[in-house]
Amino acid sequence: MALRELGTKIKQAVDMVARATLVDQDTVDDMLKQICNGLIAADVQVKLVVQMRQRMRERIQREFAIPGSSKQKIIRRVVLDELVALVDPQPGQANPKFSPARGRTNVVMFVGLQGAGKTTTVAKLALQYKRRGWKVAMVCADTFRAGADHQLLQLARAIQVPAYADGTQFDPVVVAREGIDCFKREGREIILVDTSGRHKQEAQLFEEMEQLAAAVNPDTVMYVLDGTIGQAAYDQVLAFKQRIRIGSIIVTKLDGHARGGGALSAVAAANCPITHIGTGEHVDDLESFDPRGFIQKMLGMGNIPALMETMKNAVGADTSAEGKRDSALMANRLLQGGFTLRDLYEQMTTILKMGPLNKVIEMIPGMDKLFQPNEEEGDPARKVKKFMIIMDSMTDDELDDPEVWKKEKDVQSRVHRIARGAGCAVTDVNALLANYRAITRIAPPRRGGGLRQGQGLGPMANLIPPAMLQQMGGLSGLQNMMRSMGSPQSNWPKGG
């Protein structure tokens, strides 16, 4: 059972209780049975499921006895808490998450079996650090797998991060030392070292891993685990922990695989902290792992912290004075009624940088229902890309001058010409223009110039599900979110 299907099954079981006119022990037991069956189908260890069921049952009985308590709220809270505990090691017992230090070299060593996605994960994490302003580099110390050096160098070119590899050297310790020394001289702050893997836990792999760790003295060791192995992850993690000090674990291939839940719970049972999860093959498909946020997203409740991080990663690279000046100019144009279609095009580009829109939508509470794609559009990104193609067929005047679209006698001839150029229907062009006009109405200018803080956000807030707006901290939280996106509404004047 895929994680999304598991989340749907659990949510249906809880909703069944919420709709019930009478909530008694039989109703609770039926719900727990459905939840446990779903977890076992997702390859979660039966022992863990039985223990969790007992804890949930006892806690629900205990809290039901409190006078005036809402049974539905108790059930939702208990189910969420226990599911979080299933994928989260006990607080205080897990190793602390790695935090690189500025002004010195931080070495991160990656270990794991072959085929887990180690090399791709190295590049994904390198890109994240780069976007946060770190001087990053990668070293290929995998001298066992043919083509490992070429793969890392190819990924390095794609994300524009320097990498070191030596295809003529067969000693991984030598390659690792030379690569680290090279990048230390260049003043690199974070050096990510990719190491060899094997198809199984061989003695030779562990010996090489120990030699590398002794030679490079990494600040932390990250273990990359294939999420498709399910509950077998428990024994694999323990085997590695006995030979090397693992700082954190990255679980890969969690993009809807049937055994993902089993792998996450098995790692937590082994008392190892999961810091990231891989959700796809693209270089952006790496998320920081927050147990509560992960479970909330699985249950369709969204994951606001992950959404905020995705937004920051999408626009974080452009921190130059020029980039900030462009954002300020765009904000002023919107406030003065001069927001253009070219500005909208740039905003759509930013949205696409956030990765697949279906994954972004999953992070927003309630949005998965609002944005369910129809058969014609499929991926929600198709609509955005279609709008961008339409704008590619416009003239500079049409993109840069809002007054052009206020001349009603010329609009329809322009719409038909643009539709022919873009190879789309007239209704598609009109839909784009309708969206554009709606955006420009969000922030109407007021006399004296500028807007009061939060003014103009009301119409946008009405479009957002209440659960999301509450998690974001109301209108002020929405304003902060728009600021983090680099939105044209990011610099609301604070005066009155």
Automatic annotation (TrEMBL):
Entries under SUPFAM superfamilies matching the protein? Domain of the SRP/SRP receptor G-proteins (SSF47364), P-loop containing nucleoside triphosphate hydrolases (SSF52540), Signal peptide-binding domain (SSF47446)
* GO MF assignments: 7S RNA binding; endoplasmic reticulum signal peptide binding; GTP binding; GTPase activity
GO biological process terms on file: SRP-dependent cotranslational protein targeting to membrane, translocation
> Where, by residue number, does the polypeptide cross the bilayer?
none
| Protein's UniProt keywords contain Signal | no
Q: Which residues form the Signal recognition particle SRP54 helical bundle domain?
A: 3-87
- Occurrences of domain AAA+ ATPase (ranges): 104-305
On the tree of life, the source organism's domain of life is Eukaryota
Protein name per the record = signal-recognition-particle GTPase
Q: Which lineage is the organism of this entry classified under, starting from the top rank?
A: Eukaryota, Amoebozoa, Discosea, Longamoebia, Centramoebida
